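dude i think i finally got it to work??
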Amino acid sequence: MDETPRPSPEKPRVSITYCTQCQWLLRAGWMAQELLSTFRDDLGEVALIPGTGGVFVILCGPHLIWDRTRDGGFPDVKVLKQRVRDHLAPDRDLGHIDRAGVARS
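look at this
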């Protein structure tokens, strides 16, 4: 019998697909940790998905949050949290992040 806890179906899943050839696991793991800390009551899970070819893509459910190619590099953690927040709870105040001079996307 599998007793592995399952993510809450009503809470969204964030996935971070990262390039193993580029050794971006630590970066992806750090961003996952930041999202889990900030949205601890709002997320069902954060998944790290190994990829190749320079990929670094972050999805919140089916919504594209960040694509390294499209967005020109890696997200600043403040911008990442704001974009995830905009999908989870647009009216939520992120405290100092929202008051640090970074405009909402």
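The mean pLDDT is 89.
im so relieved honestly
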